[in-house]
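INFO  loader      accepted 1 record
INFO  loader      residues=231
INFO  predictor   begin
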Amino acid sequence: MDTSSRMRLIALTAALLLAPAAPAAAAPVLDPLKPCYQSLGEAETQRETVLLRAHGFTPLATVDALVDGQPALTGGLADAFGDVRASVKVPYQADGERTFEVTLTERDNPANTVTATALVSELTVALRPKQARSSRRVRFRGRGFTGAGAVYGHYLYVAPDGTRRHRRTVRFGRPEQACGVFTARRRQIPLKRPRTGLWILQVDQQRDYDPQPDSARVEVEIRVTRTFRNP
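INFO  predictor   done
INFO  writer      dumping tokens
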């Protein structure tokens, strides 16, 4: 090797040794989840969808999702910028609320993993006592009403032919806590002399009655067997 070649090799080696180390690739990040999600039943259609928006994966990499350690999405792809857009269902929650975990992992590089947690709540409404005179004040308690605004109860009388007739709407108040808990005391049926038979109480977060509301809803059956006159 001649002198000039040797000098160029020494200069290149020195440059490599003095060059700053390449920064480590940033870990993937997941956009914040909602504080709490709803679970009305075991069927997928009865469990709320979690929208996942993540960044920092290898472009065009295959990304899998787990919910509480169980496969929820396989074969999702990051886009050319390393972003992931996906959706999974919350786990079924039969009673109360609990924390659940969502994990996104790059299949060919498991070190590229991001995890986040949120709450899942049963979506329910209960009356205490369950059976009472229609004029009696009872306690209404519900949870899982995580939408915006107050909770309303829409009273529907079910005619013998099955037709539902909206008769009254009451306001139960604004839900509290992350998972939308409310408690209120009201007359079981807010009418002076309700007809005997089957009533449906539809509880949702819309002030005006709609048989298909945009918000989540719960239906409670109330059966009036006798109307009591005030003494």
